[in-house]
Design a protein that fits this description.
The chain has 59 residues and is mostly helical. The chain has one domain (2-58). It contains two helices and no strands. It has helices at residues 4-22, 29-55. The termini are close together.
Length: 59
């Protein structure tokens, strides 16, 4: 299985979360909650992809 797309998504999701945390004072208030929820969902799915790839590594 080619894991290039999953790796790119994992890097992008964690980068988005880091950027939102670092720039939270510069994000307008009406966008802050939506971006935070989206970033949490992306990071959670990226974590799931990491765990799934580790559990299926041997097969």
């Amino acid at each position: 299985m080619d894991t290039t797309a999953a790796l790119i998504f994992i890097i992008a999701a964690f980068s988005l979360g880091l950027i939102i945390i670092m720039q939270r004072n510069n994000i307008p208030a009406n966008l802050r909650r939506g971006l935070a929820i989206a970033a949490i969902a992306f990071v959670a799915f990226a974590f799931f992809l990491i765990v799934y790839s580790l559990t299926t590594m041997g097969s």
